[in-house]
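Checklist before submission:
- one chain only
- standard amino acids only
- sequence pasted in full

Submission:
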Amino acid sequence: MKAILHIGMPKTGSSSIQDTLAQAKLGKARYFDWRAANHSSLLAVVCKDTSHGYAKRYSEAELDEMIAETASTFRENAEKEGTETFVISAERLFNSPPGNLRIFKEFLDQFATSYSVIGYVREPSSFLVSAFQQNIKMGKCNLRLNNIWPDYKRRIGHFDQLFGQENVRVRLFDRASLKNGDVVEDFADVAGIDLDPGQIVKTNESLSAEAVALLYLDRQFGQSFEAQEGPKPILTNKLVQKLSTYKGRSFTFSDDLLRPVLEANSDDIRWIEDRLGTSFSAKPKKADIVISNQRDLVDLAMESQDVLHQIIRQTAPSVDTVTPASAARFALGLIESRSNE
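Returned file contents:
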């Protein structure tokens, strides 16, 4: 049986691919039925990687039992009549160390006789903007962009060595390069999966400039009303989800912020361009707002307080931890942080 591995990279439409394949009819292919459409927690369980929150919940004995159950499910899937291919999608694969990738492949070798690895990559400047957004959600708040460089050659090279470069397809995540401008259609086409475009689920996880600025300030300076020892974010997950739906302006980073990072990683850029068979555009994508430093984010957050207050009013009835006191403390924190700079 053939195994198709979708490896991300992060911020390249993975959620849309996963949400679509988890509920769509795929002909002779089968999307592995796991606890979530994103198979990153499956990878963590098989590798006993307790750095992942899901695997961390369980003891080693419990993980062994889950691995045995998962192997049994794979066998059942493989034995179903008409199934020729199974599909796994986990953007965590892209960032996994070689040791974990080997463990996962050894597990899959019990069922798979051949492999096709498919990954998508963003143009560097675009990736840095998206990765910064994701880091903000996770509470990582700095503008040292070199820390989030994707390391194209090193990470993709892990898959080349393990699965053979001839079995690893790398695609540019860009509308002009994708089939019908859609990453889900493109993935199905490259993977050879029958997919009705009418079944595609669109999932957009990008944040507006206003949302990024507010989250940045919360993660960097926010303090809850009750605890005032150091920065403590008070925006709850539910509130952040609401904030993520706000359709505000787009943003990018300034040339001054990007140039040193791009120059430092010029060899890596040339490598991925050669692998793709195309050069990245020298023209940065247009955006409504250009961010050059922390002051720009702080100023934008101050201008966007009405957005946060509106969403708090909409969300407060369903979020127990968002109280008038905490909201007031957050607003006061914005003013204090801004005035102390």
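Reviewer check: Confidence is low (pLDDT under 50) at residues 223-231, 318-324, 331-341.
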